[in-house]
Q: What sequence folds into this?
């Protein structure tokens, strides 16, 4: 919901940093992989009950996720880079709830519900992008991307806000996860209605 509105604020400093990394010979794919491993480390820290460390690693993951696109824009977007980016994102999105489930087995059902809602959100997102590419539909709302990014109630910024709240208030994981899973499901319905209107 807020991703497109945040882009004009965060893209200029990210693009400047991306150009510098590119000048140092650091490739976008390497940044993507570094971000994915930071996300996995965040999940491991959370699983061990180290929520502050997990939070720091989540923020590092998001910084690197922004920087990989900036490096790619400086050196040239590639189809594989777009593929790797979305895979790394969903590795991160799945790993963090699993970390909370491992930390507190009582969280397992809510974590499973959240991961399931992420799977449905990701499916609707990628299916929409596939059909948009087939129809030649494009958007610049989320900046230059390898494929179409459809908007929705639950996007990247909202997911990070959810994870931050979970790390700050792990004792409230259950209601936070349940509420955000509901928002994800609303997003799936919202995106499906938009797809029905556009692609039928």
A:
């Amino acid at each position: 919901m807020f991703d497109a509105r945040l882009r004009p604020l965060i893209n200029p400093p990210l693009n400047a940093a991306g150009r510098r990394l590119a000048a140092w010979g650091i490739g976008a794919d390497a940044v993507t992989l570094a971000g994915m491993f930071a996300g996995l480390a965040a999940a491991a820290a959370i699983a061990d009950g180290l929520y502050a460390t997990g939070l720091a690693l989540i923020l590092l993951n998001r910084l690197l996720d922004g920087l990989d696109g900036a490096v790619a824009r400086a050196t040239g977007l590639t189809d594989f880079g777009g593929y790797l980016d979305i895979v790394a994102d969903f590795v991160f999105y799945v790993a963090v709830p699993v970390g909370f489930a491992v930390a507190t087995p009582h969280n397992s059902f809510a974590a499973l519900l959240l991961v399931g809602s992420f799977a449905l959100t990701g499916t609707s997102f990628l299916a929409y992008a596939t059909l948009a590419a087939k129809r030649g539909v494009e958007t610049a709302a989320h900046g230059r991307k390898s494929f179409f990014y459809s908007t929705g109630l639950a996007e990247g910024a909202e997911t990070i806000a959810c994870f931050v709240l979970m790390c700050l208030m792990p004792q409230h994981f259950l209601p936070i996860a349940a509420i955000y899973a509901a928002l994800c499901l609303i997003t799936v319905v919202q995106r499906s209605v938009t797809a029905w209107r556009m692609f039928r």
